[in-house]
């Protein structure tokens, strides 16, 4: 199991909308995440800066990254792009974090 962490960025004023959209996460998106090996997926919000911290455990990072090629993921990115910093392909601007401590 690989642990993957990243940070992403909301546009100001979108904290409640971001939470709402994730509370109503599309079943097809949940299925795609699971199908690509995602487990124990959490996203946390730093309220003062609109910064998101995402953590997910994956069976295989290369297989997990292929979710980006799916139609449902690309549709989700398009849906989320108006409320968060996004790349030209609508994927969220994300900074991968390097693990420096793991205490089991």
Give the helices and strands, then pairings.
Blueprint: E1 2-9, H1 15-23, H2 27-35, E2 38-46, E3 51-58, H3 61-65, H4 71-80, E4 94-96
Short account of what is shown:
This protein is an alpha+beta fold.
Radius of gyration: 14 Å
Residue-averaged pLDDT, rounded? Answer: 98
Order of helices and strands: EHHEEHHE
Number of strands: 4
Instruction: Give unreliable regions as ranges.
Output: none
- Percent strand: 25-35%
Q: Please, what is the oligomeric state?
A: single chain
What sort of overall outline do the alpha carbons produce when their principal axes are compared? globular
SS summary, helix count: 4
- Largest beta-sheet details: 4 strands, antiparallel
Could you tell me how far the N terminus lies from the C terminus, measured between alpha carbons in angstroms? 13 Å
| Secondary structural class | alpha+beta
Helix amount: 25-40%
The largest sheet has its strands arranged as: 2-3-1-4
Structure commentary:
The protein is built from four helices and four strands, in the order E-H-H-E-E-H-H-E. With about 100 residues, the chain is of the alpha+beta class. The radius of gyration is 14 Å and the shape is globular. It has helices at about 15-25, 25-35, 60-65, 70-80; strands spanning about 1-10, 40-45, 50-60, 95. A four-stranded antiparallel sheet has the order 2-3-1-4. The two termini are about 15 Å apart.
